[in-house]
Amino acid sequence: MARASQRDARANRVAMRARARDASDASDEDDASTSDAPRARASGRRALDYVRFDDGNAHGRAFERSALRRTMARDPAFDSMARHRKVKKEITEAHGALAQVRRALRAGGGGGEDGGGDGDGLVLVELCSGRGFVSLVLADAFPKARIYMIDRDTTMDVSHVETYGGARMSFHALDLHSTACEEFVRGVADDAETRGQTVVLVGVHLCGTLSHRAIELYERIERAVAIVVAPCCLPQRRRHDVFGFHCKDIARSIGNGVTPFQCWCTQLYFRLPLTSKRNMTIDHDVLSTQNTFLVARRPLDSALDALSISTPLSPSIVPGRSCAKWRLVK
Question: What is the pTM assigned to this prediction?
Fold first, then answer.
């Protein structure tokens, strides 16, 4: 009897929900007949339309003032990006990368006080670009720069790139770990040098070993003047010979609130070539817990060549055999 009464109660609840749903649908149809235009506008709202920033967020203010903001609002080609639910975070990450690119160019003395000017003579290569929000912000800030987007995912909608023209921005389907990718970036850098242009590598939220690979490309391709990297998650491969494998163990052994991500960023910082001017910066205006930027820039003269440095100019960091141990070797 108890089971039968429970079944009857459930059946009654289902019937009541069905009647309520039918009444709601009928009400919606009535509303639609009297106000089709407002409902059409409401259904067309995108994530970007709801984005609001605090007055203290410098990246948010910069985006609201930019031409890109107005373009994304009216150009259907940017619709897929404007609908992305994490568009607010992507805005701050992209403008954070822009700030670090300007910093690197100012440090080099070749970009002027505003760090790159209008981008004349500037070549930017975004590694693991995704749909290229960072590239869009860079293109907006440097209208005369040449921008290359590199990512292995060929299923993404990157039709918005076509609005900039192939001579200004282009997407290339390449795996960052592949030899073909390294040869492509080297070719871009070699061509830029013959034209007297400046090449900067940019990678935002590179997952796992991709951050280490980006730094490796910067180290190998000497004609790349600077690199800006924002690391993301830790390496996932559980092997002792993978760079960064011991981050969790190191953080646990240090204690005092030190996180594995902080250890990962520190290891990547010391992986940057010693011949470069290096910086590690936390950007609190980036709306993510992973808001650390690593920046390196090569010297524009040979003054460092005359210095006597006891450590090797291009050291390697390799994992030791015991937990939380890394060695600097020649």
Answer: 0.77
> pLDDT of the chain along its 330 residues, tens only?
555 566 666 666 656 665 555 554 544 444 443 333 333 334 467 888 899 998 899 999 999 999 999 999 889 989 888 888 899 999 999 999 999 999 999 875 544 445 668 899 999 999 999 999 999 999 999 999 999 999 999 998 898 999 898 899 999 999 999 999 999 999 999 999 999 999 999 999 999 899 999 999 999 999 999 999 999 988 876 666 778 878 888 888 888 889 999 999 999 999 999 999 999 999 999 999 999 999 999 986 543 333 333 334 444 444 444 444 444 444
What region does 319 belong to: left with phi over 0, alpha with psi -120 to 50, or beta? beta
Pairing of strands 224-231, 198-206: parallel
CATH architecture of the domain covering 59-302:
3-Layer(aba) Sandwich (3.40)
Domain chopping of the chain, boundaries: 59-302
Q: Per the structure block, which two tokens stand in for 203?
A: 């990678």
Q: Provide the β-strand partners of residue 294.
A: 229, 280
Count of positions (residues) in the chain: 330
Give 20's Cβ-side CA count (13 Å radius): 6
Side chain identity, residue 45:
R
